Each structure stands twice: as C-alpha cells, then as structure tokens.
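Recap slide: DUF2834 domain-containing protein, sequence and predicted structure.
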Amino acid sequence: MTTITLPLIALLAFAGYTASVMLQAEQSLIDFGISLMSRPDTAQVVIDLYLLATLAGIWMYRDARQRGKSALSVVPYLLITAFFVSIGPLLYLVVRGVQDRKKAPGLSPSA
C-alpha cells in the first residue's frame, strides 16, 4: 500500500461525511462548539481533541522544516486543523506523499 492511499481514503471519507453533516446541521459550527463546551463531559472530549490537533500541528511544522519547506507552507494546514481537526493533518499527509512521489519518479507505486 502506498503512503498516499490510506490518508487519501480517510481524507475523502471524513471530509465527505463532514460536508454532509454540515449541510444538514441546524446550527452553525460555532454554536455547536459552544454547546459542546457548555458541559464538562463533552468539553473534556473537545479539549482532548484540540490537544491532539496541537500535537499534529507541531509535527506538521517540524516535518515541513525538516523537508526544507518554509514555516508559512504549513499555515493552510494549521488553519484547516483549527476548524476541522483531522482534515488538516490528513490533507498534509496526502500532499506530502504526492510531493515525495514526484521527487522520486523511479519508485514503484507500491513502495
């Protein structure tokens, strides 16, 4: 399995599900977030999720810098992560995999 396949499948499935839910939602994303933070049990889940999002953001930043990219190259992924947590890192992994594949054209698709 390629390094792009799994993140791409997860990205497409989750982004599609997210879009579907948002189109059917009866309240805005901000109102939904406020209602989640109004109870300790759901607030704990939101806080946990954003701690993981922060760790993913740090990883994306460090990974981009190690690959010789500017810190600004990660900003779009961080903004997406701020609103749609999982979609930002998944998109980063897909784009990174595509870029890696372009750099190494001699690699087979199953590498």
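Residues 5-103 form one domain.
The first helix runs from residue 5 to 24.
(End of recap.)
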